[in-house]
């Protein structure tokens, strides 16, 4: 890693890598009753969901998500719709996919997907959440709060930080998102949106430093 990638300094890259590592849950995957692919700007979520389906980890896959300012131009018909089409192109049978096209945040992703599964007669005891790599911890904390009687596992594309930055093509955006997701991990339990997660000192220090350096476009208003 050099310090000339879109103005991202070496020290900032190291701080971002610390937060990146923290966001990932490192769960050991095993068969579950259903999976939920969380909509976002990252089509890799759909790609990895398809890979996990083909490996036999679950019989039913929900794609959830409408649009956000980050995704409206990329996925004009909605995140879940585009993710579903991509997964079908990758060999997932259409009948294995349930669509939830309305969720506008992670809480709605979980709540609305649960309703879609129930409407299909599926009441899982184990659920796999497939997300962006840096969204694993927040999605886990949200699901544990909203769906406490279900065992939650998390997965994301197994990419190194450098490779993920290259796949997205916008280092500033990714660092902003890393910081924003960590803020939500810290703040959302106070609002009743998620269970509390311990944040190690080095992770918190990296977070404060990147905020000081201006990686703030994804922060929620205080």
UniProtKB/TrEMBL annotation:
> CDD domains attached here?
YdcF-like
Superkingdom field:
Bacteria
Per the database record, which ranges form the DUF218 domain?
Answer: 34-146
Pfam families given in the database record? DUF218
- Point out the signal peptide segment: none
Name of this protein: DUF218 domain-containing protein
Q: Which organism is it from?
A: Streptomyces gelaticus
């Amino acid at each position: 890693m050099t310090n000339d990638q879109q103005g991202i300094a070496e020290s900032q890259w190291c701080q971002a890598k610390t937060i990146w590592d923290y966001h990932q849950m490192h769960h050991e995957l095993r068969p579950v009753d259903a999976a939920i692919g969380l909509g976002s700007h990252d089509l890799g979520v759909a790609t990895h969901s398809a890979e996990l389906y083909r490996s036999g980890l679950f019989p039913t896959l929900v794609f959830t998500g409408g649009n956000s300012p980050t995704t409206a131009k990329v996925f004009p018909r909605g995140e879940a719709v585009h993710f579903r089409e991509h997964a079908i192109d990758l060999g997932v049978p259409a009948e294995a996919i349930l669509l939830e096209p309305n969720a506008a945040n992670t809480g709605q992703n979980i709540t609305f997907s649960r309703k879609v599964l129930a409407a299909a007669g599926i009441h899982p005891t184990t659920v796999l959440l497939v997300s962006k790599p840096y969204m694993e911890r927040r999605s886990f904390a949200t699901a544990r709060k909203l769906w406490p009687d279900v065992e939650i596992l998390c997965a994301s594309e197994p990419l190194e930080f450098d490779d993920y930055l290259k796949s997205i093509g916008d280092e500033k955006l990714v660092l902003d998102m890393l910081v924003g997701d960590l803020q939500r991990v810290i703040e959302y339990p106070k609002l009743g949106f998620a269970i509390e997660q311990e944040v190690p000192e080095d992770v918190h220090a990296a977070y404060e430093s990147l905020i000081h350096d201006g990686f703030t476009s994804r922060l929620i208003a205080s």
